[in-house]
Automatic annotation (TrEMBL):
Taxonomy, superkingdom: Eukaryota
GO cellular component terms listed in the entry, alphabetical order: endoplasmic reticulum membrane; Golgi membrane; SREBP-SCAP complex
Record key words, sorted: Endoplasmic reticulum, Membrane, Transmembrane, Transmembrane helix
Tagged with keyword Transmembrane: yes
Membrane-crossing segments per the record: 20-45
Name the record gives this protein: SCAP N-terminal domain-containing protein
Organism: Nannospalax galili (Northern Israeli blind subterranean mole rat)
GO MF annotation terms: sterol binding
Gene designation: Scap
Lineage: Eukaryota, Metazoa, Chordata, Craniata, Vertebrata
A biological-process GO annotation: SREBP signaling pathway
InterPro entries linked: SCAP, SCAP_N
Length: 123
């Protein structure tokens, strides 16, 4: 038996065993699959629905204090701050836009050269 034939036989045996397991215990397999699907779809509940506008929330950079934890705030009630804004920050995100152009543009230049040219001085 060659390696490919043995591999093919092992894969066939694994599929057969899985099919036998599913046929022997259909209800637990269906329940487990349903729970897995629900667990994977749970983050979709936090997506905004069409028609709802984006929510903008900002904090001051100077004199920053972590938000207080509202113990009397009930889950599901609207409040002034977003649900995710609790406790001290764990990360800082900084976004930098670089606009550049290459002048004069020659026909032998690539689009990558637009970025490479201004950044070459930094490196």
């Amino acid at each position: 038996m060659t390696l490919t034939e043995r591999l093919r036989e092992k894969i066939s045996q694994a599929f057969y065993s899985h099919g036998l397991l599913c046929a022997s215990y259909p209800i637990p397999i269906i329940l487990f699959t349903g729970l897995c699907i629900l667990a994977c779809c749970y983050p979709l509940l936090k997506l905004p629905l069409p028609g709802t506008g984006p929510v903008e929330f900002s904090t001051p950079v100077k004199d920053y204090l972590p938000p207080p934890v509202d113990s009397d705030h009930k889950q599901g009630e609207p409040s002034e701050q977003p649900e995710w804004y609790v406790g001290a920050p764990v990360a800082y995100i900084q976004q930098i836009f670089v606009k550049s152009s290459v002048s004069p543009w020659h026909k032998n230049l690539l689009a990558v050269d637009v970025f490479r040219s201004p950044l070459s001085r930094a490196f």
